[in-house]
Model the fold of this input.
Amino acid sequence: MNDSRHVTIVMIEDDEGHARLIERNIRRAGIMNDIRHFSDGGTALAYLHGDGLVQEGPALVLLDLNLPDMNGVDILAEIKSSETLRRTPVVVLTTTDDRSEIQRCYDLGANVYITKPVNYDSFADAIRQLGLFLSVIQVPRADPP
Amino acid sequence: MWMTQRLANRLIIGAVIAGFLSLMLIGLIGVNLLRRNLEFTALVSHTYQVQDAISEFRILNERMETARRGYLLSPDKRYLEVYEQTRAALPPVMDRIEKLTRDNTVQQQRLRTARAIMARQVAAAEASVRDRIAAAAAFDTDPAVLATRELRTVALQMTKEEQRKLVLRDAARLGAVEKLVALIVCAGALTVAIGVGSLWVIFRSFRDLTASRARVEALNEGLEEEVKTQTAELRRANEEIQRFAYIVSHDLRSPLVNIMGFTSELEAAAKPLGDLLEQAEAAAPGAVSVEARLAVTSDLPESIRFIRSSTEKMDRLINAILRLSREGRRVLTPEPIDLGALFAALTGGLKHRADELGVTLEAASHGPALVSDRLALEQILSNLLENALKYLAPGRAGHIRISAAQRGDRVIIEVADNGRGIDRKDHERIFDLFRRAGVQDQPGEGIGLAHVRALGYRLGGVVSVESALDRGATFRVSLPRVLSLEGEAA
Done:
């Protein structure tokens, strides 16, 4: 159960403000896991594919769909089709509430889809829900090579 | 090109008409010639008759003379009988010749001479018959014989005259016949020419007709193609706008999340700040300046309240744009719609509110057949009905009626109310996004009618209004009877 403590949260989010608000609310929800913030898709994927992840243990990905360098959906597809990463839980956290977009994310294997509400209370609520989610899911360790 | 073509056609048609006219003229001339030919023939036969009569006269005369001589030589009763007979037969023949040659003065003259000679001859002959022996003796000086010789000469002259005339008349007749033959040959040639000309004209116009029909068909196809292209371009442009609206509203949302989020953080930070101020005030009265206290207790919360209400409004507007754009991208599914049932369902859903407001809702139980997108139509009509319920005229019991009628290949749905109405100058404005009209005493963002019009366009329809202030309003939705999705993006 306490495995989740060692889980690194990989946050892929280009908006500094959003990143900061998410982090604050995660902390307020009592989640003390490491948070690695990437503001573009390329660097984040390089990190996920690289050695860093193996050393630091399993991860959970917080993914925004609107990124400057690539579409978040493509990052999701790449994670879910990768042999080593496909079991990594992905939480899509974005402003897009288009039904077909949500459908597509789930089809690609997103574990949770959260729409960023503009209303801040709802926003904080959603993050708290995420904390709850974090405490119940089993995040697999990356298999030792 | 077109003008010269027209001119050429006119010339050709003129030539053909002229050809037919000359053919008619030839016909007339031919008839005339034929008539003249008949006249000549009649004249020729007349001449033959005259010749015939003259010959008869000559024969009778000779016969009478022969009979007389015979009788003088031998007093046989039979000679006398023949003589009597021929003598009696001569005057009628003379009369006939006179009648036949009435048109010829020369012949008449000769006839008179002949009559005179014959009178002498007959007198002499009668005398010789009475005194047979003396007459036989003086045969050479017999006046009857002399008269007979003279008569012979006159008759011969008359025959010659008739012969001459016969030749002339026959020549004239032959000339007329030749003219007729020439005329017929001419007519034949002209007929052939006209026939060929007409055929050529017909062939030519037929060819032109075929060519122009082909051209019209080609143009028509081009036009259809053009319309298709234009429609496709319009749809593309529309999709572009929808996508644009979608992206813009999404991208506007991102900063808005920050504004609202950090405003809340600010608000949260203001609370411990206020507590701190109170503690400081309690610990050292007068340490906190009035300005500082006002800033924390009044200015800060007020500013935050304004930021929040503004961002909330902006959020609503962005959501409205998003909804419009999403509606614009929804795939339409045309299906047969029972308008009577639809009206009943829509008014049924609003009945509770209408009862509370004291408004009577009237829905037509039947409507024309319609194939359209049910959801879009429901949204249009419920928007219009809700507006009618919202904008009532104060002091007047509301009455709202929804009905439909068919006009040509379109179905017109009307939502009519007796509410406060809309000023004529605002009739276009009310359909604009975020625009409203009249007294602003009802909640709303100015989205409903913009939405209605956009949906109407998507259904291939038009939404219009007829109204005046305090005169109620009638909204009309004109839709194609059958919604066609041709060219609609999949």
